[in-house]
Amino acid sequence: MKREDGLSVKTKDMDIFEENEIKANYIVALALLMMAVVLIPVFIMLEIGEFDAPRFEWRPAMIFLEAVLIFGFVFEKRYNGQKAWLKSVLLAILVFCCGSFNLLFTSSAALYLCLPIILSIRYFSTRLSVYVSVLTFIVYVITGILGAEYGIIDLNYVELPIGTKIVMDDTTWLIDVIERMEYDHFRFFINNVEYEIFPNLLMYLILSLVSIFITRHGRILIIRQHELAETTARLEAELDIASKIQIGSIPSKFPAFPDRHEFDLYATVRTANEVGGDFYDFFMPDDDHLDVVIADVSGKGIPAALLMMTSKTLIRSEAASFRNPSEILMAVNAKIAEDNDEDMFVTVWLGILEISTGILTYANAGHERVAIYQNGSWKLEEKGHSGVAIGMYAPEEMDELPERYKITDHKVQLLPGDVIYQYTDGVTEATDRSEELFGEERLISVLSRSGSTDPFELILHVSEKIDDFVKDEPQSDDITMLGLKYFGAGNIIGKGKV
Predict the structure, then answer these.
(1) Of 192, 161, 156, which is closest to residue 176 (Cα–Cα)?
(2) Alpha carbon separation from 416 to 6, 202, 413, 453, 491 (Å, rounded)
(3) Are both 126 and 70 inside the same structural domain?
(4) Which residues contact 102 (CB under 8 A, 6 or more apart)?
(5) What is the torsional sign of CA 199, 200, 201, 203?
(6) What are phi and psi of 329, to 5 degrees?
(7) Which of 28, 56, 215, 368 has the fewest Cβ atoms surrounding its Cβ within 10 A?
(8) PPM-type phosphatase domain: from which residue to which, for each copy (predicted)?
């Protein structure tokens, strides 16, 4: 359908303006009530002579205006602001009452008629603003003319005789002048039109044009704001679904392998946004091998989440064809770098544990240094074991890189009781209020004071310490942690016995 301003909108969009119209009706009704309240002390001050009274009988007019104002307020309450024609009636009452003030107090009440024009903006209806502006012009001209005839005379429009002496500290001269003055009604009317009615009409014209401009553009902004809100709500719903799909793709059931007593593992991911780029994974390609992955995709939001899902799927797929972590990651790199127009990349740590021997073979593609618990203490792997991240270089470019940048395999002999702790940079780059990083040294210190090497308790302890460190600062990056404890190939009693 088409609105009055020519904008194409859906029918449901009209609900915005219907709801807005109800609120605007209430505002106008409230303005009528406030004017009625203000009119009471004005009435009293007129009674006691504090104001100059018009020449005609003003008392019935004041009482009538008071009744009209209260009627307008009650009228809005009667229909709860929910009639389409109510706005026109309420604003007409407001224009009529403001015009009546101008009639009664010609010399000082013209500006009241700005009020209906200003309040009409709140409806965001161009047609209504034009209606109120035209009605204001008509009522002002009529009340201005009638006020010049029956209201308080503004002596600024009366031409004083030549030679009149004006004494500022004595008003007797004014009374004498008025008594002796030949009152030229036509000249007074012309002066009134020239010096008051015409200038005020110009003011109302400018104000009307401004109000119509604000009304139209305000209406457009409201429509766009509503469309943006709908789009945002839809995106939030889609992000919520994407988040559930993403979380559902990451293994979250622990213990992961309840029938295997040679090892125990636990992992967790805490995203900074609805969807994230961090992920972990673990699977057993055969009875004697456990593949463990933790990765961090560059960027945030939907693009990172899509690349995360792609990377996770590719790693699992390539792990069926290759046995060495470096070969798996190089194969994944070739496929991701092939169509990587956005220059995104993935840091990956991939470890393959040979359960029967305790040999952990791992490859690090630009990821954080793994922490290892051996001989009763925690330490980070040596520097220089990390190659470039996946997706940064095509296979032929990877071959030309210096050896220190290539993705290579490294081996660690795990003994019963040894633990592997791996994480993403959301852990070490967690920031407190003073912008200090959590850092690797603090991480090792926290791991050393954990009091337990159980993967679940270990990760819970680190997570609590990160929260204590950052306090109320917002999480700026995904935080992912994975712990793997090796009990030995001969452990058949149960986990936790070593």
Answers:
(1) 161
(2) 77, 93, 10, 12, 9
(3) yes
(4) 109, 110, 112, 113, 140, 143, 144, 147
(5) positive
(6) -70, -35
(7) 56
(8) 260-486
Distance CA 130, CA 153 (A): 31
Q: Does residue 454 contact residue 264 with C-beta atoms inside 8 Å?
A: yes
Residue 390, strand partner residues: 346
Q: State residue 63's pLDDT score.
A: 86
DSSP H helices, 151-197, are 172-180, 185-192
Looking at the fold, whether 102 and 200 belong to one and the same domain comes out as yes
Question: CA 275, CA 245: separation in Å to the nearest integer?
Answer: 10
CB 486 within 8 A of CB 416: yes
Q: Distance between CA 276 and CA 303 in Å, rounded?
A: 9
Distance CA 31, CA 308 (A): 58
Element of type H or E holding 325: helix 325-338
Q: 58 is in which domain, residue-wise?
A: 11-152+184-233
- CA nearest neighbour of 378 among 429, 425, 440, 437: 440
Give the burial string for 423-434 (b: 16+ CB within 10 Å, else e).
bbbbbbebbeee
Cβ-based burial of 463 (10 A; exposed 0-12, middle 13-18, buried ≥19): middle
Domain count, the chain: 2
Relative to beta strand 386-387, strand 409-413 is: unpaired
Do 218 and 322 share a structural domain?
no
How much is the pTM? 0.62
Name the token pair of 343. Answer: 């220059």
Which amino acid, 322?
F
Q: For residue 387, give the H/E element and its range.
A: strand 386-387
Report in angstroms the alpha-carbon separations of 103 from 47, 97, 183, 487: 18, 10, 20, 98
Q: What is the pLDDT of residue 8?
A: 41
Distance CA 429, CA 473 (A): 13
Pair 228, 262 in one domain: no
Report helix, strand or coil for 391: coil
Residues 6+ apart with CB under 8 A from 50: none
Cα–Cα distance for residue pair 124/122, rounded to 1 Å: 6
Place of tokens 């992000």: 239
C-alpha 28/C-alpha 41 separation (Å) is 21
* Token pair in block for residue 86: 């109510």
**107 shares a domain with 224:** yes
3-state secondary structure of 211: helix
H helix count then E strand count, the chain: 14, 11
* Residues of the chain falling short of pLDDT 70: 1-14, 50-58, 106-109, 148-192, 195, 274-275, 491-498
Local structure of 486: helix, strand or coil: strand
496 occurs within a structural domain = no
Which CATH number is 260's domain given? 3.60.40.10
Q: What is the residue whose two structure tokens read 């996946």?
A: 390
Q: Give the tens place of pLDDT for each residue, 284-313.
A: 999 999 999 999 988 777 788 888 888 999
CA terminus-to-terminus distance, the chain? 74
